[in-house]
Every structure is written in C-alpha cells, then in structure tokens.
Design goal:
This protein is α+β, with helices and mostly antiparallel strands and about 130 residues long. About 10% of the residues lie in helices and about 15% in strands. Strand 1 and strand 2 form a beta hairpin. The model has no long low-confidence stretch (mean pLDDT about 75).
C-alpha cells in the first residue's frame, strides 16, 4: 500500500513525499523531526479509488422558436391526455440511459445523385390539389 507524507518546509513550501511502504514513510518522518526540526507532518495511506467515465448525449436546439409557453413548475409537463385515449404516461423528469445499454445501428445512407429513387413515396397534395 502506498503512503504519502505531507509537510511544510521551514520556508513555508508544502511538500508531498510518496513512499511505497509505511516503514519508509516512518523513517522519513523521524528524519524530518530529528534532523530538520519539522513538526506537524502528516502521513496518509493511499488507496486507488475505482471510477468510470460515461458519455451521455444532450440535445440542444438553438435559434428555434417553439411557440410553446413555459409550464408552471407545479403542473406536470408530460402525461396521458383524456382527449387522446391510449396516450402513454411519461415521467416528468427524463431517465438517463447508460451508454452501455445503447445499441448502435449502421445508419449510413447510400450515395444519391439527387434524383428520387424508384421507391420514393408519392408527393403529398395540399388542400388545393397542388403537390407540396
């Protein structure tokens, strides 16, 4: 187990001295006290702390007017609607998903020369009969 001695030099500079064992650190503390007159040194035991870094995706849309008014904090922002039976009930706060649970798919589109493909959908007509 690694150890570290932290102390101040007589000029006020903080020093950090790492050691691979407690015996070496204790010997250094003795030298500091007996030979250099340093009091107030501290000895710490170091252990590795495991952690992981996970990516998340946040979508931000800028410069777009949504036309929606802000909902007061005491009103739910999502939920089933009586006017539309079968509408699912959603939680008011988003649920974050670990990137470990995300399945990636190949979404590469084939090159296009600009012409519609043979299986392109028919144009949608407006109320006046003109295609959009």
């Amino acid at each position: 187990m690694s150890h570290i001695v932290i102390h101040e030099d007589p000029d006020g500079t903080t020093r950090y001295e790492p050691f691979s064992g407690v015996e070496d650190a204790a010997g250094y503390l003795e030298t500091l006290h007996n030979d250099e007159g340093v009091d107030g040194a501290r000895l710490y035991e170091l252990r590795e702390v495991e952690f992981s870094v996970r990516s998340y995706i946040k979508v931000e849309i800028g410069g777009v007017e949504t036309g929606e008014e802000e909902t007061p904090a005491d009103e739910p922002t999502h939920g089933g609607d009586a006017a539309y039976p079968g509408t699912p009930e959603f939680a008011a706060t988003p649920e974050y998903v670990s990137m470990d649970d995300v399945e990636y798919v190949d979404a590469t589109l084939p090159p296009s020369d600009g012409a519609p493909s043979a299986d392109a959908a028919e144009p949608i007509e407006t109320a006046g009969g003109e295609p959009r």
